[in-house]
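re: ur question from yesterday

yeah so i grabbed the chain u mentioned. its 332 aa long if i counted rite. heres the sequnce exactly as i have it in my notes:
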Amino acid sequence: MKNKLLHGLLLVCLTALIFQACKKDRTVVYVTPTVNNPTNPLVNYSVGILSAFKKAAPAMQTFTGDATTGFWITGAQGCKFYFPANALLDASNMAVSGNVTIELTEYMNKADMLFAGVTVGSGNQLLESGGMFYLMAKKNGAELHLKNNVGFFIQIPQTNNTPDPMDFWNGAPNTGDSLNKIDWVKKDTVKIIPKKDSGQFKSYYGLQFDYFKFGYCNIDREWSKFKTFISKFRVKLPKGCNDTNSTALLLFKNYNCCAWCNWLNTEDAISTHYQLPLGETIKVLVYKKTGKGEDDLEYAIKEVVLSDDTEVDFIGLVKCTNLELEGFIKAL
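ran it thru and got these structure tokens back, copy pasting raw so excuse formatting
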């Protein structure tokens, strides 16, 4: 009887030891990270493209003016607007009086555009910007609009390098692209010719409207309209870069024109849906998020002339801080 009891006790203890060993093994297997898994947060850090540059994006400026008497405003980068007397209407088409608030954001160079995602695409075409802005009038927080046939004046510093005539464009949300947020639509058939400021010897675009729509506005030209487009454009990044932790942007060397690029997951490469012109020089900047911190970044820049089948290969990236990356983009 004692032997049977002893054997039973030993069997229970042995079973418990085996269970604990199995449990221990399962626990070890469960917590071991799969280092080669690209979705593992320990080795793959998400790059927040526009949010990373939020501090560097152009700030909205606010002004106050008397709608009854009319007034001028001048933005930090030189954009000027004249609001005629009694020309601002509310949603019921009633003229407002007294003080109104004007909101203005100026996007005058490629860095402004890229940091804010307000670039220069119209459909699959790229434009050259002579100066663009966001303008809105409000009374007690409610949006206003302009009365027709009132003579609204704007004066925009010229930001492109050519004397070619420009067109006037309005911007709408680009529902197909979260990085290049605005899609531009031509609104004025009158060619806009740059004028010379006799006092400062600078060129500007001066316009007078019998009508005007507040919102995103651009003085642009279709500079690539009469060029030959290339058939293929690809950017190849080093091993370890993917559509979560890396991105690319392109900037034209000779034009005030740029755009964020997008990943082609089926090809493991980066490209753009915009048509690109043969023979033009572009600069491609790529960067990768390498850690949790704001300054955990790597980057590289290449300048290339667009051929019919353009592939830009990046072999390695160099460490940089977020502030340094902003400086590189501004310098391009």
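noticed a couple things. Helices lie at 2-31, 49-52, 110-116, 322-331. also Confidence is low (pLDDT under 50) at residues 1-42.
anyway ttyl
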